[in-house]
Design brief:
The protein is of the alpha/beta class and 477 residues long. The chain has helices at residues 76-82, 102-115, 129-139, 154-164, 189-206, 227-231, 330-343, 369-381, 407-416, 451-457; strands at 10-14, 20-21, 37-41, 91-96, 120-124, 146-150, 168-172, 209-214, 234-240, 246-254, 262-268, 271-274, 293-300, 303-315, 323-326, 351-357, 389-391, 394-395, 401-402, 421-425, 437-440, 443-448.
């Protein structure tokens, strides 16, 4: 009697994120998408026997590394984030919001690589070849060693790789490439998995640096299955405000370098350029010191950035005062206001408070608390803070100032940019004491214990004046 073969088991899979379940549900339990769960048939499990190996295992000390030496991309800020440059055979995923400049950045990288004599292939699945050429003309990216193709079929893409034999491959984007003999729509879980696996396999076997563009969802996460982030070597996120030209590139995963580096770019009509010193974008050069402003020093990765915080305090016309922020965490600003009311003597229960950053900067570092507090107090009393002063410190609910990381780097950057005074928290572990004054690279640094001491030091106490501003103080006493 013949043995009965077990029928393949049916599963239900989400087309958006790849989540599986044993029975059908209307809403995905992982990404919460409605109507995306469909039935799939699982292949019967089999046993795999040992087979021939592609290369014998050798001691790790005898593995050659010459072929995987990093090469400069020609874009310094990208090299900074990657940890030194592009690694041959690496698979890199670049994600970001629509319109942030991903294609423009990668076209610039492709052009710079081609100028160095290394053949580059740029495959676009979202634009026609003529559209990419128009952008290349505008940004100056027309180079002989840069090859361009517009394809959405994986087999055709692999054919272009065979013909061109590039050292750098750019695919824009992975969600637009499809496999003809595989079920599912382009961008679906099954299609993205197969396309990503094929591109990574080509990158490793042919030692081609491969950069793939990935779409993002409404909440900012990379669209498609999470396995896409696992199979690549580097995951980069390109971000920026639509109303600003400033862009930031962050490494979320990097097998060849650190993940705490940030690259800065300026996106303009003539292309994208690296910004080695972005501080000038976030600090306003006032003709004279004005009330309601203070400069903070935040850390973006391992790079200190100076950003100006501006505040405006007005008498509330109604019973419910407004608290409006731009570029700052509203809950953190609310906490700073509570600390100022309790420990700084500011009565703002009947005042509207508006806080903003300059140049579209987004500050989430707790070390900006002190600068926010000084700008609010300065606006409330119409007394400007002393000229060329920075403030660094996290505010506690008891009014104390807590120490922050990388303080020497922050102070060195402020001194390099010409600031004369700095207010920092007391660090008793390093022998600091309240009121101690020291010089750092020509800048006067004062250790303050709490917000009350800051208010006394800057003379930000007393009668509220909402008329003409007080003349700027030239020195901190």
């Amino acid at each position: 009697m013949a043995a009965k073969t077990k029928a393949p088991r049916s599963d239900y899979r989400c087309a958006e994120c790849g989540w599986t379940t044993a029975k059908w549900v209307g809403r995905c339990g992982e990404c919460q998408a409605w109507g995306s769960v469909a039935e799939t048939t699982a292949a019967p499990a089999g046993r795999t026997a040992a087979g021939p190996v592609t290369a014998p295992a050798v001691p790790i000390g005898k593995v050659p590394v010459e072929e995987s030496t990093q090469r400069l991309s020609g874009v310094p800020e990208l090299d900074r984030v990657l940890g030194g440059g592009l690694v041959p055979g690496a698979a890199i995923l670049l994600a970001g919001e629509p319109g942030v400049g991903k294609s423009t950045l990668l076209l610039e990288v492709a052009a710079q690589t081609a100028r160095s004599g290394r053949r580059t292939l740029y495959v676009s699945g979202e634009e026609s070849a003529s559209q990419v050429r128009l952008r290349a003309d505008r940004t100056g990216a027309v180079v002989d060693e840069l090859y361009l193709a517009a394809e959405t079929d994986l087999a055709a893409l692999l054919g272009h790789i065979e013909a061109v034999k590039p050292e750098l491959l750019v695919v824009d984007s992975v969600q637009t490439i499809n496999v003809a003999d595989l079920d599912g729509v382009p961008g679906g879980v099954t299609q993205v998995k197969e396309v990503a696996a094929a591109l990574v396999r080509v990158a490793k076997t042919r030692n081609i640096t491969t950069v793939v563009v990935g779409h993002v969802t409404k909440d900012g996460t990379i669209a498609g299955p999470r396995v896409l982030e696992h199979v690549v070597d580097v995951v980069l996120h390109f971000e920026g405000d639509r109303n600003s030209r400033f862009r930031m590139l962050r490494a979320m995963k990097n097998r060849f370098g650190p993940v705490d580096e940030v690259g800065c770019f300026d996106l303009g009509s003539d292309g994208i350029t690296a910004v080695s010193d972005p501080t000038g974008l976030f600090v306003e050069n006032h003709a004279q010191q004005v009330p309601g402003t203070c400069v903070a020093v935040t850390m973006e990765g391992r790079r200190p950035l100076l950003a100006e915080v501006q505040s405006l305090v007005t008498v509330a016309p109604g019973d419910k005062p407004r608290r409006t922020t731009s570029g700052l965490d509203s809950s953190r600003v609310a906490m700073v206001l509570a600390v100022l009311a309790q420990h700084g003597g500011l009565k703002l229960h009947n005042h509207d408070v508006f806080c903003s950053t300059v140049g579209g900067a987004k500050l989430t570092d707790p070390s900006t608390d002190l600068a926010i507090a000084i700008s609010i107090a300065s606006a409330h009393y119409s007394r400007p803070a002393p000229t060329a002063t920075i403030a660094i410190g996290e505010l506690g609910l008891a009014g104390e100032l807590r120490k922050v990381r990388d303080l020497p780097q922050r102070l060195a950057e402020a001194a390099r940019l010409g600031f004369k005074y700095a207010l920092v928290p007391v660090d008793r572990a390093n022998g600091s004491a309240p009121g101690r004054v020291r010089m750092v690279d020509g800048m006067k640094v004062m250790d303050v214990p709490d917000i009350a001491a800051v208010m006394r030091l800057l003379d930000l106490q007393g009668r509220v004046v909402h008329a003409a501003p007080h003349p700027a103080n030239d020195e901190v006493s």
